[in-house]
Design a protein that fits this description.
FAD/NAD(P)-binding domain; alpha/beta; 8-stranded parallel β-barrel; Rossmann fold; 708 residues
């Protein structure tokens, strides 16, 4: 069992005493009331993480001069005394649970979308150089429309105001006054957002700040705004009121941007000005889609630790950092002195009780983040945050799990995420649950996708563990039938059997080197080693059979490792369909040396991938040499190639040793229809009712169980 001694030990930032080393990262959640007030929804969102055991919650992106300089839909405001009561109510509720609260003070500068919407100029150190972005081709029309909402308002205008001395004096005063309001509201500390492209960051960044006065040029001049803000807050709130800043430890993909050496020097200047800690993040060129997973919502595990450790080596104050750090790794990094406190964002959206579960020795019960970027993708399209694996996130005020008025007997068909989440919540509400799964294992399609996308394995482990812990009666190798329902006499029947796959009418699809999604699934379970199916050589059947008998096929981690050595697939692979399954699988196969081509009939790749992750996956596929073609309609499959028609009506041929059909997943009403014809009322959820992927399955299962 892992030890979390260092992670769970108490610590201090200035006079602020903290019960452990786990903080909730500052995130914009779009859960404030429309006029910037902290209402019940936002209050319960933070209260859940305080009750879950985090030491400190940092309320993200709190607008110091709202609506001026504000970035987000439903952003928290601290620009007037009228906001103090709502902020105080959040602080009071957080304190009830033994946690502390900080607010992250922000002027969004060049990213102030609400200024664009309302026609105000964007405050900036210098007129920025406009860049062409690469994100547009990978947005679906509804996403593009929602992202562009601020720019399509009748009042919208994009123009700039180069900050004058008077403007900067006003900015410094706004930060100090906002901090004073925070202190009056009973908030324990403030964080100055000096990263991520916002106003203070743009002054620090030599790629943006080209001024030649006392606010630009040398690093000391570029850091002047940050230093003056720190000093002003200390003067206004007192030397003992905890203040720190969030800095980018490096800026990726930006010529002439912030270097790590710059960040270290800035941290020292902040410390000298009176900062009580440094919170280390990172940034990247925001015109590139992959930047958002390279930098602040990092894809790479522990991606910011080297930069935090570098800053830790040059300052004497505590260092905080973020960036996909697993609890055991965080404990080890703290032990080694790489940093002092860890902030968790996605992990605490997935499971607000993570700190408490660690402390109680219940790490196996932690609901894992699967790093799908559902949460931040919501912010990009101006919606409130949500979590794919935790249906309560952002809805804590209206989704309290309570005991049902009477216990019911519930039968569920399907052991994937939708079925297991329904079972989990139903048991928590006091119902008796029988879960029938016709295969020999739980997990559904997600279990098999864990081979190509590792984080999904953690979700399957968690849900399977909950079935055991909560006493769900699981019947494997059991198909739910009308006869079984008649024998068991349940009060409710839930159908969660997943999607079915339609075989596209492509000439040549019956050829032996063509694999369907079901064939891939059978390959991963070893069923192709024993029965009919696509042509496999004797060696391939032998190895797959051995893998099944030895249990290798039960372990996605082993499959990922061994598949680098051998796979029963040819070298040239064409995938028909360019959605989530295709993009994940294409990356997996290309990493293992296959030459992969993806043919997508539509105009946009990656349906089913949340947009921030879509940008990351597509960028990774490009780096790996995957050819991805849109507007590509398959004409026929030959023995050694695929012929397709491009968007200009021209036929083209691609060599193929193997063809994989990844399209065709549709709703699967078959079992529900059979049962209804037998006079049995049923509830349909998950992909069998309509393709919704993991987040759709989890949310549908939760919502149904809350109403049973």
């Amino acid at each position: 069992m892992a030890s979390y001694e260092h992670l769970l030990s108490p610590g201090c930032i200035g006079r602020l005493e903290l019960r452990n080393r786990i903080f909730m990262s500052p995130m914009g959640s779009n859960t404030a009331d429309p006029e910037g007030y902290c209402g019940e929804r936002l209050r319960k969102y933070y209260a859940a993480r305080a009750e879950g055991g985090a030491a400190l919650l940092i309320m993200g992106s709190v607008a110091i001069s709202w609506p001026v300089g504000s970035a987000n839909f439903r952003q928290v405001a601290i620009s007037d005394d009228r906001f103090i009561p709502g902020l105080a109510a959040v602080a009071d509720e957080v304190h009830v649970h033994g946690a502390k609260l900080a607010v992250q003070l922000q002027h969004a500068g060049l990213t102030a979308m609400n200024d664009i919407r309302d026609g105000r100029p964007l405050l900036t150190p210098s007129i920025p150089v406009m860049k062409d972005g690469d994100m547009g081709p990978y947005l679906f029309p509804d996403e593009a429309q929602r992202m562009s909402t601020p720019y399509s308002a009748p009042t919208a205008k994009l123009h700039y105001r180069v900050a004058s001395e008077e403007d900067l004096a006003w900015v410094v005063a706004e930060f100090a006054t906002a901090a004073a309001r925070a202190r009056e509201a009973g908030i324990d500390a403030v964080e100055i957002h000096a990263g991520h492209g916002y106003l203070v960051h743009s002054f620090l960044n030599p790629a943006v700040n080209t001024r030649e006065d006392r606010w630009g040029g040398s690093l000391e001049n570029r850091a002047r705004l940050l230093v003056e803000v720190i000093r002003a807050i200390k003067d206004r709130c007192g030397a003992d009121y905890p203040v720190w800043c969030r800095l980018d430890g490096i800026e990726f993909l930006t010529e002439g941007g912030i270097t790590h050496e710059d960040a270290c020097a800035t941290a020292r200047l902040a410390e000298a000005a009176g900062a009580d800690a440094i919170h280390v993040s990172a940034y990247a060129d925001a015109s590139k889609g992959e930047s958002f997973t390279l930098a602040h919502t990092v894809h790479k595990p522990a991606g910011f630790v080297p930069f935090a450790a570098g800053i830790k080596s040059v300052v004497k104050i505590p260092v905080i950092t973020a960036g996909r750090i697993e609890p055991a790794a965080a404990n080890d990094f703290i032990r080694r002195g790489s940093f002092d406190f860890v902030t968790m964002a996605r992990k605490l959206l997935a499971d607000p009780e993570l700190p408490r579960k660690l402390g109680e020795g219940r790490a196996a019960e932690i609901r894992p983040c699967i790093y799908c970027y559902t949460c931040i993708s919501q912010i990009f399209v101006n919606e409130a945050t949500k979590c794919a694996v935790n249906a309560r996130t952002g809805r804590e005020n209206e989704t309290v799990i309570v005991q049902a008025e009477r216990s019911r007997r519930i039968m569920i068909a399907g052991g994937g995420p939708a079925g297991m989440e329904t079972a989990r919540v139903a048991r928590l509400r006091g119902h008796q649950v029988i879960l029938c799964e016709k295969s020999s294992r739980l997990g559904g399609t997600v279990r098999f996708s864990a081979t190509s996308y590792a984080p999904n394995a953690g979700l399957v482990r968690y849900l399977c563990g909950e079935m055991t812990r909560l006493g769900v009666e699981v019947r494997l190798c059991t198909e739910l039938t009308a006869e079984l329902v008649a024998r068991e006499k349940p009060d409710e029947v839930v159908i969660a059997v997943g999607a079915r796959r339609e075989v596209p009418a492509i000439p040549g699809i019956e050829l032996p080197h063509v694999l369907s999604g079901d064939d891939i699934r059978a390959m991963l379970t070893g069923e192709l080693a024993e029965g009919p199916g696509p042509a496999l050589g004797d060696v391939s059947r032998l190895l797959l059979g051995a893998g099944k008998r030895l249990g290798v096929l039960e372990r996605p981690d082993w499959m990922r490792m061994l598949s680098r050595l051998w796979m029963p697939l040819g070298q040239r692979i064409v995938m028909i369909g360019g959605g989530l399954v295709a993009i994940e699988l294409a990356e997996f196969l290309a990493e293992r040396g296959r030459k992969v081509t993806v043919l997508e009939a539509g105009e946009v790749l990656g349906a089913g991938l949340k947009l921030v992750r879509r940008w990351r996956n597509i960028a990774d596929c490009k780096r790996l040499g995957v050819e991805m073609l849109t507007g590509a309609l398959p004409v026929r499959i030959d023995t050694d190639s695929v012929v397709y028609r491009n968007s200009h009506g021209q036929e083209r041929r691609i060599a193929a040793d193997q063809v994989i059909i990844t399209s065709g997943a549709v709703a699967n009403p078959g079992l529900a229809s059979v049962l209804r014809n037998a006079g049995i009322e049923v509830h349909e959820i998950g992909d069998c009712a309509g393709i919704g992927y993991i987040d759709g399955a989890i949310h549908a299962g939760f919502d149904l169980a809350m109403n049973l």
